[in-house]
Amino acid sequence: MGRSLQEFWETVKRKVSGNDSTATYEPIRVDSEPENSEYGAFESPSTSTRSPTQGYTELMGGSVPCPSCKGSGRIPKEMEETLVALIPFDDERLKPKRTFYLCSHWDRDMHFSSPAGRFFMLVPRAVELSSTNFAIDNVNVEGHAIQPQAYIKFNFMNHINVSNANYYNVQVVNTTAQIVSKFTPREHDTVGMGFNSTHMTISPLSLSENNMILFNSTVTLTDIAAEYCQQSYSRLTALYVNMQFDIVVSFLYFNHREQASFTTVQPVCCIPTGNCTSTAWI
User: Fold this and answer.
1) pLDDT value for 53
2) CA 251/CA 197 separation, integer angstroms
3) CA distances to 143, 144, 146 from 151, in Å
4) Burial class (CB in 10 A: 0-12, 13-18, 19+), 226
5) Bridge partners of 222?
6) Which one, of 174, 162, 173, 177, lies nearest residue 130 by Cα?
7) Among 180, 157, 143, which Cα is nearest to 263's?
């Protein structure tokens, strides 16, 4: 029995230190070892010895690397064909820009197709008028005189821009303008009128730069303003008179009529030739 215990301990030492050069080991049988011996807790090498690869296989057995965990996770092998790998939202394979575009359109369509969305679209919004206050350089002179009473009468085309913030078409049915002379700061004499009854359709959500309303204006200047416009030096230089345009536009939508107003001050050519871009007297 003493020899058997000695061989057993030598075998254990070789296993622990890794110096075992033998390919196989014979099991050591302890025939006369009592059950309550202090060495009874040890088992034979044939039943307790496992290689490192066997331990690793047992630890990772039945699992494979997770495709979307960047090598840091594993999933059960039997569920490899069932589980779906998680792909980040901004992955180019998913075409995130196209996905966002389609989702935004879907959300907008769902919003507008609902009762609240239809109400939102039908709520009236502003129809605004605007002008760049540009100078009117060319007019059509109908008549002028200095004696016995100074006057000059001419007509010209003016325009104003319209923007539509509604989600539906707006139809312009009438445009009028009252023209006031601003030759002197205190002067508020009405010297002409502008008018256009042509109908025009303004598209939904359109900007003012895309919608221009023309109206024909006729003006008659008298007294000191007419004398100023017909001075002899008008052959050498362009002469203008500031005029205030009080514009009112009538528009129609869903059989409902409304008006929008706008006031602008513009310089208007008033020389007898009617052309302030050229100083040649005709």
Assistant:
1) 41
2) 11
3) 8, 5, 6
4) buried
5) 151
6) 162
7) 180
Phi then psi for residue 213, to 5 deg, are -105, 120
Q: Which long-range contacts (CB under 8 A, 24 or more apart) does 172-175 make?
A: 172/199, 172/200, 172/201, 172/202, 172/213, 172/249, 172/250, 172/251, 173/197, 173/199, 173/250, 173/251, 173/252, 173/257, 174/249, 174/250, 175/213, 175/215, 175/247, 175/248, 175/249, 175/250
**Calpha distance 73→84 (Å, rounded):** 14
CA dist., res. 175 & res. 262, Å (int): 11
Task: Compute the average pLDDT of residues 181-186.
Answer: 88
Strand partners, 151: 145, 222
Neighbours of 156 (CB within 10 A): 19
**What span, in angstroms and rounded, lies between the C-alpha atoms of 106 and 110?**
6
**Helix residue ranges per DSSP H, the chain:** 2-17, 45-48, 52-60, 96-113, 115-122, 223-229
Which residue, chain included where needed, has tokens 């030492």? 13
Contact call for residues 150 and 223 (beta carbons, < 8 A): yes
Return the pLDDT at 186: 82
Q: Are 173 and 250 in contact (CB under 8 A)?
A: yes
pTM here is 0.58
pLDDT in tens, 84-95: 666 666 666 666
Q: Can you state the angle between helices 115-122 and 96-113, rounded to 10 degrees? A: 80
Given this model, what pLDDT does residue 218 score? 97
Q: What pLDDT, in 10s, does the model give residues 184-234?
A: 888 888 999 999 998 999 999 888 878 999 999 999 999 999 999 999 888
